[in-house]
Amino acid sequence: MSLNKKKDAIIIKDVTHTYKTETGLLPVIKNLTMNIPEYGFTAVVGPSGCGKSTLTKLISGLLQPDKGEIYLSGEKIATPRPTVGMAFQNPVLLEWRSILKNVMLPLEIVPNKLSLEDKKERAKQLLSLVGLEGFEEKRPSELSGGMRQRASLCRALVHKPEVLILDEPFGALDAFTREDLWQVMHKLRKEEPFTGILITHDLRESIFLADEVVVLSGRPATNQYSLKIPKLKNPKLDSLFSPNSIDMLKRLRKQIELAQVQQGEN
Q: Hey, which of 106, 165, 202, 209 has its CA 20 to 30 A from 248?
């Protein structure tokens, strides 16, 4: 398997991970292998509790696998990586900081040579890109849930990470806000190129945002099924109602049902 970073930004090779609990060992991931190409965007779906969030912690270096290896840009991951950005379902913005200063936070932590003015300009650039120009000095509590999530995405991207990990970032939002943010994500991918991995329970979200959807099996999770998504030049929400999209959703639902049956048997 090639470690050429021009071809594969993330390589997950035969990874197994088990948690130690009070009641014994809990196998979560078993012999998982998958690649994400540079600037590719992969969505990971599967039954609840199958190990999707554990996978993000392994990729970010917050956990180490019991077996197997994970590479980022050709380098084996052994510690948390500053070149990984993360956004979660809960934006976790700091109320005592303005939106601008919340977005700037990674630039205060990750080593860089930017001046304070350059850091502010970088944060303002991203906020403007996602439609938050004019809200820089607001506090998180003064923004709607969708606006806070936009700010969270800016914070995850402000230090120009190689990889952006999204762990159900839109799951708590209403349907209209969620769909609006899907379109924001396409805009961010175009203007701020990154390699992305999205954890989601929303199959429509997965096929609208991703280049490939990976279905994990029931726990312990492995790669059960992969679906390549045809690229559209200018993705529109109406494309989700096309015959091709409906067919892809049916195939993915069938795979999720199979994974749920398997998880129920384990």
A: 165
Res 5 pLDDT > 60: no
pTM as predicted:
0.90
Contact at 8 Å (CB) between 27 and 20? no
Residue 49's region, left for phi above 0, alpha for psi from -120 to 50, else beta, is left
Residues 171 and 253 in one domain: yes
Number of separate domains in the chain: 2
C-alpha closest to that of 167 among 90, 80, 106, 105: 90
- Considering the domain boundaries, does residue 38 fall inside one? yes
SS3 content of the chain, % helix, strand, coil (to 5): 40, 25, 35
pLDDT of residue 1: 39
Residue 141 has a CB neighbour count (10 Å cut-off) of 8
Domain span at residue 217 reads 1-83+165-175+196-266
Which residues face 213 on adjacent strands? Answer: 43, 227
Residues 221 and 110 in one domain: no
Going by C-alpha positions, the residue among 168, 132, 170 that lies closest to residue 151 is 132
Q: Please state the rounded mean pLDDT for residues 56-77.
A: 92
| pLDDT surpasses 60 at 6 | no
Same domain, 208 and 77: yes
Which residues lie closer than 8 Å to 197 by C-beta, 6 or more apart? 10, 36, 41, 42, 43, 44, 56, 59, 163, 164, 165, 166
